[in-house]
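To fix ideas, we now present one chain and its tokenised fold:
***
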Amino acid sequence: MFARRVFLIAGIYGLLVLAPHYFLEAKIGRDHPPEITHPEFFYGFIGVAVAWQVAFLIIARDPVRYRLIMLPGILEKVAFGVAALGFTSH
């Protein structure tokens, strides 16, 4: 039950946070210069991140069946978190 809730919350939260980025490329470029010069990387990153959120929702439906997918899912969250902390400390 714990894994079901955690992955459901992670998937929903991730979709809510990431989906608006599809419409924010220009604003992000203005607010945090320099502007995005390679939008394919920006949209590629958002697309992969959204795909993982969908995977979290799938895991939440049957955590026992998808327990092996939990490992790369956790790695995805930790890797981004560590990278984000590393860049914000400078």
About this structure: Residues 14 and 75 are 15 Å apart (CA to CA). The chain is about 75% helix and 0% strand.
